[in-house]
Write a sequence for this structure.
């Protein structure tokens, strides 16, 4: 058997038969097997949109060659007499717990929120006008914020090939489509993620792992630089959990956990992050702008990614673009307001949305050096300001053109956001440097994407990343501690599902070693 790689341009609606015919014609083969290595959409020319597909072909007629071996994560197993406690069931926490349990440790995973089914029920109640549930919302609960925010699996992190291969294999084994292994922009969808997250948890439990939902970290007890136990609280009791190693992977929204760790002596520094709003358009407008037509056979919905750097302003960019998606209330705490976006696996909603954010350095915004505690206070104050602007979970909003012109006009705006919009001078709610930079970015984006100015801008996008970063040793242990680790987005060293899961895996492998 010989092997060869082949790159092809294929129509957007190509079938398996089409692909086999192209391979057969290109290499003059009749009997072969193949595997798609990468697949990406080339939409640079609207009259010639196509897939770029790289394929590995195996056949008797081919001479020599061999497929590039897939990077493999080797997890050594032996019975280990150490107990590990992981706090948080998002990608970093779940994958670190899974790896450590596979390697022979005894792992207890605690999660402040509800299991994914109960969480979905609480979210549905809230979206229909019911109360906010601190244990079941878009931020806290099984699977972390990513479970209900689209399930994008792209990552710009380098040198995580083994970890990425392991993550994708676990997702596929849990029910994800095999295409996530080769698509340039793989996406699971929040509906599919619910069952995937549950199956990953069941895999962890089948290995002997223990998971405790609706259990919140309240205190850590130390002997010098060593954490001995934690105090947790559930609806029925407060108890202690002893351990040899402790991993905190609570995500970037658990501000009371940050404050608890700072009080304990964990060292953080502030770092640049982003702040802005959500923009929303009819999906057909985005399709027309990107494809030159309202639909494109074989592609679910058009995407975009925009950046703007204008003199005298902060860099502005779109983030977490959700084709055919929904703008969701992603606040972590009652009487605060922040938004996110999500889309289902089919991406067939009426609207498209994206974060539109300015890259900020708080020291420059506030004009003085900002402490980690002050950074948390600043973000929370802004989230309370946006909540108080409507005195509810409705979002202050206006048309993008009105944000640019600084006027409020027109009739109520149609939106996917379930708790409603209130027309407001949104630009007045942001600090001036952020507001003027977003305005400059919106003007620039309106030149780059036809019809962009006709969309809506709404709410506060405050959780693109953590404003803090923990100081870690090369081993990933927190500086000044022997057995305390922070991982994932809450550590400030990763962002998004893939890089956070990879951070948790890398940390786990360092512990195993």
């Amino acid at each position: 058997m010989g092997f060869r790689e082949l790159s092809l341009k294929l129509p957007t609606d190509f079938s398996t038969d089409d692909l086999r015919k192209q391979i057969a014609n290109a290499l003059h083969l009749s009997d072969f097997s193949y595997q798609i290595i990468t697949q990406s959409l080339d939409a640079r020319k609207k009259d010639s949109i196509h897939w770029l597909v790289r394929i590995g072909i195996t056949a008797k007629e081919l001479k020599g060659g061999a497929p590039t071996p897939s990077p493999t994560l080797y997890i050594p197993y032996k019975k280990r007499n150490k107990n590990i406690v992981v706090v948080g069931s998002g990608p970093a926490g779940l994958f670190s717990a899974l790896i450590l349990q596979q390697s022979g440790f005894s792992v207890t995973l605690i999660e402040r929120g509800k299991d994914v089914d109960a969480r979905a029920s609480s979210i549905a109640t809230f979206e229909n006008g019911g109360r906010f549930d601190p244990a079941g919302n878009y931020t806290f609960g099984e699977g972390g914020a990513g479970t209900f925010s689209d399930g994008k699996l792209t990552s710009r992190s380098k040198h995580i090939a083994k970890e990425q291969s392991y993550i994708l294999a676990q997702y596929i084994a849990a029910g994800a489509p095999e295409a996530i292994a080769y698509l340039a922009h793989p996406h699971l969808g929040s509906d599919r993620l619910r069952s995937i997250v549950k199956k990953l948890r069941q895999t962890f439990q089948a290995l002997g792992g223990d998971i405790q939902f609706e259990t919140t970290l309240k205190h850590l007890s130390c002997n010098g630089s060593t954490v001995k136990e934690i105090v947790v609280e559930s609806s029925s009791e407060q108890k202690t959990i002893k351990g040899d190693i402790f991993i905190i992977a609570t995500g970037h929204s658990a501000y009371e956990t940050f404050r608890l760790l700072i009080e304990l002596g964990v060292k953080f520094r502030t770092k640049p992050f982003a702040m802005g709003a959500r923009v929303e358009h009819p999906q057909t407008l985005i399709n027309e702008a990107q494809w030159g037509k309202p639909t494109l056979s074989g592609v679910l919905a058009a995407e975009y990614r925009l950046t703007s750097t204008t003199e005298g302003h902060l860099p502005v960019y779109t983030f977490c673009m959700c084709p055919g998606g929904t703008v969701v209330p992603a606040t972590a705490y009652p009487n605060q307001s922040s938004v996110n976006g999500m889309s289902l696996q089919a991406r067939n909603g009426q609207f498209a949305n994206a974060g539109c954010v300015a890259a900020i350095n708080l020291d420059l915004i506030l004009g003085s050096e900002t402490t980690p505690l002050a950074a948390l206070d600043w973000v929370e104050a802004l989230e309370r300001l946006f909540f108080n602007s409507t005195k509810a979970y409705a979002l202050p909003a206006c048309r993008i053109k009105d944000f640019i012109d600084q006027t409020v006009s027109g009739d109520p705006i149609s939106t996917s956001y379930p708790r409603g919009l209130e027309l407001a001078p949104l630009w007045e709610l942001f600090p001036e440097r952020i507001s003027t930079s977003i305005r400059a970015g919106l003007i620039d984006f309106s030149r780059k994407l036809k019809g962009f100015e006709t969309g809506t801008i709404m709410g506060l996008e405050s959780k693109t990343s953590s404003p803090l970063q923990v100081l870690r040793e090369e081993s990933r242990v927190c500086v000044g501690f022997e057995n305390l680790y922070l991982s994932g987005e809450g550590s400030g060293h990763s962002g998004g599902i893939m890089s956070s899961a990879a951070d948790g895996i890398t940390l786990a492998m360092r512990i195993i070693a």
In short: Residues 2-59 form a domain with the Dodecin subunit-like fold (CATH 3.30.1660). Residues 372-390 form the longest helix (19 residues). The mean pLDDT is 95. The longest strand covers residues 316-329.
